[in-house]
Amino acid sequence: MSIKEQLRLDLTEAIRSRDEVVSGTIRMVLSAITNEEVAGKEARVLSDDEVITVLSREAKKRREASEAFEAAGRADKATLEKAEGEVIAKYLPAQLTVDDIKTMIAHAIASTGAAGPSDMGKVMGAIKPLIAGKADGSVVSTLVKEALNK
């Protein structure tokens, strides 16, 4: 079963159980997926990897919105954004730990022969397919910078 099919089944279940946060979040995610499918010249069906990319983007939006509401003193809105982020996280692959990411970075540096900060693009290019949907890009970028500046 594809992720999109699972989302549709879970939406039906959330509506039946009258869970407004889950149903509203899944509706927003399905809308984002549909928008991605019809964007461009031809309508197409997204693969699971592409759906994970959309889910990751939506989760990042919720995380950033939660932080912004928190900073503005709107704890109620921040809590709602966090709850929506948790719903989306259920459909994402397990997130990598910092140690796992550092190990991947070390392998990428060794395989690309990167020697300094100017080679960051090489390392990010090598590691990006491995971390897609499994880690926040800004965290990975920071860790790569640290590793290359040693």
Topology of helices and strands:
Elements: H1 3-16, H2 20-38, H3 48-71, H4 75-89, H5 98-112, H6 120-131, H7 137-148
List keywords for this structure.
2 domains; mainly alpha; globular; 150 residues; Hypothetical Protein Yqey, Chain: A, domain1
Question: How would you characterize the overall build of this protein?
Answer:
This protein has 150 residues and is mainly alpha-helical. It contains seven helices and no strands. The protein has two domains: 3-89, Orthogonal Bundle (Hypothetical Protein Yqey, Chain: A, domain1), CATH 1.10.1510.10; 98-148, Arc Repressor Mutant, subunit A. Helices cover 74% and strands 0% of the residues. Helix 1 (3-16) runs antiparallel to helix 2 (20-38) and helix 2 (20-38) packs across helix 3.
CATH class of the largest domain: Mainly Alpha
**What Rg is obtained from the alpha carbons, in whole angstroms?**
18 Å
Runs in which pLDDT lies below 50 for 5 or more consecutive residues are none
Number of strands: 0
CATH superfamily of the largest domain: Uncharacterised protein YqeY/AIM41, N-terminal domain
CATH fold category name of the largest domain: Hypothetical Protein Yqey, Chain: A, domain1
Number of domains: 2
Distance between the termini: 45 Å
| Helical fraction | over 70%
Mean pLDDT: 88
Beta fraction: under 5%
The helix-strand sequence is HHHHHHH
Q: How does the overall form come out from the CA principal axes?
A: globular
CATH architecture annotation of the largest domain = Orthogonal Bundle
